[in-house]
Amino acid sequence: MTLSSGSVEFRIKAALCVLVCVFMGMAGAIAYALDWSLLAIATLLCVLSYPLCWSAWKVWQLWSSSLMRLTTYTQSLAMGESGIQPSRLGKSVLFDDLCREITLLHQRSQGQMEQNRTLSALFTQLFEDIPIAIIAFDANQTLIYANRAAYQITDIGLLQGMTASELGFVLKKQQYSHPALTPNWRCQSSTLRYMDQSSHLFTAIDISSELKQSEQAVQKNLVRVLSHELRNTLTPMSSMAETLLSMEKWDSDQIRTVLVRVKARADGLLTFVQRFAEVAKIPEPQKELFDIEQIVEQTKVLLRDGDTIEFSGQPSCYADPQLIAQVLMNLVKNAVEACDGQSANIRISHYLSEQRQHLCVEDNGSGFSNLENAITPLFTTKANGAGIGLAFVEAVLNKHNGKVSLSNSPAGGAKVALSWPL
Question: Does residue 268 surpass a pLDDT of 70?
Fold first, then answer.
C-alpha cells in the first residue's frame, strides 16, 4: 500500500512519530534540567525509544487491522458469501456497530436484487415474445429488463444496470422518451407496482409501415380528387378552344366570350392551388391560455340576418389562439353555407374530459353528403367550393396532436368534433 503525503494513513503515521519524538524530547529535557551527564541522557533515550516505538506501532496496527478486517468482510459479502462474521482482535462497540450496519445494508441490497430478479423473471414470462419493444426501469431509473424486440432496436444500446439517462432516455412528467425513437415510433410510459416495488414500463411500437401506408392512401386520394378537378376544369377549356379552331371565320364577340370563360376557369384552378398551399404552410402552434368565447364572438361577422350562434361550456382554452380562430372561422363559414335558404342556428361547445379538450360545432343544415371524403383536400360538393376548409381544420388539429371527427345529427345538420390534449 503506497502512502501519499495527503492520505489519512500518512498523517496518522506522522502524528505517531511526532508523538514519540515529543516524549523523548521531554524526557531528555527533564534529564538535562537535573544535570544528568550526556551519557546518562543518551542511555535514557535509548531505553525509552523501544517502548515508545512499540506502543506507536501497536496503535497503528490496531487501527489498520480493524480497517483491513472490515474491508475483507465487505469483499466477502460482495462475492456472495453468507454466514460469515468479521474477525475480532478484541471487543469494540464501535467496530460491532459498524459491522452491523454493513450487514443490514447488504441484506437490503440483496433483497432489492432478489426483487429485481423476480420482477425480471415475471417480465420475461409475460413480454419476451411480444413483438412490441418493452423496457423496464426500477424506482431508481435503473434498467432491469428489456425484451427481445427492444434489443433488436439498433438505434439504442441497452445494458443491464445502467440508468435511463446513461442510455439516452429522457424523463419528463413521468413519461420516458428517447431522441432516436422519433418520429416513426409510438412510445408510451406506464407505472407498475409489484411486491411493494415500483417500476416504469416503456413501450415502443414501430409505425413506419403504417405511416407509409397512410401516406400512400392520402396521396392516392389526392391524385384521384385532383385529377377529377383538373379534368372538370380543363375539359371545357379544351372544348371551347377546339370550337374556335374549327371555325373558318372568327367572330370577335364569340372569341371574347370564350376567352372570358377560359380565364374564369383558369382563375378558379389557380385559387385551388393557392388555397391548397396554405394548408402546407401552417406554423407550429404557440400554445397559451385564452378565452375561446371571445373568438366565437368574432365569428359572428360571418352571420347573415337571422343566423344565430350559441356558445356553452368552459371558456378557458389552451391552444394557439390564432390557429383556433381560423379553425372556427372555417367551421362557422361552412355551417352558414350549409344552411342556404334557411336561417343558420349554430351551436358551439367547449369542455374538458380525461385530460383532453373538446370543441364541437353543430348546425341545422343539410349535413355531410359524403362523410368518407369530406376532409379530403380539394374534395367539395359546393358549386363554388375549394375543398380546403376541413382539410385546413384537420391540419391545425394535427399540429396540436389532436383529431377531427365528422358526423350527421339524427335531427339533421352536421357535427364537427375536435379534441386535443390539455
Answer: no
Q: What is the mean pLDDT of residues 101-129?
A: 66
Cβ 390 vs Cβ 365: under 8 Å: no
Cα separation, 73 vs 85, whole angstroms:
7
Mean of all residue pLDDT scores within the chain:
76
Return the pLDDT at 89: 52
Q: Quick count: other Cβ atoms within 10 Å of Cβ 313?
A: 16
Q: What are phi and psi of 111, to 5 degrees?
A: -65, -40
Assess contact for 206 and 215: CB atoms under 8 A: no
DSSP three-state, residue 309: strand
Q: How far is CA 195 from CA 192, 198, 290, in A?
A: 10, 8, 45
Residue type, 388: I
148-to-101, 131, 158 alpha-carbon distances in Å: 40, 8, 11
Q: What is the residue-wise DSSP string for 202-238?
A: EEEEE-HHHHHHHHHHHHHHHHHHHHHHHHHHHHHHH
Residue 230 makes CB contacts below 8 A (sequence gap 6+) with 269
Q: What is the DSSP string of 311-370?
A: EEE--EEEE-HHHHHHHHHHHHHHHHHHTTTS--EEEEEEEEETTEEEEEEE-SS---S-
pLDDT confidence of residue 358: 92
Verdict on whether the full-model pTM lies above 0.70: no
* Beta sheet of 143-146, edge-to-edge order: 143-146, 133-138, 197-206, 185-194
Please report the pLDDT score of residue 360 as a whole number. 92
Closest CA to 323 of 270, 297, 286: 286
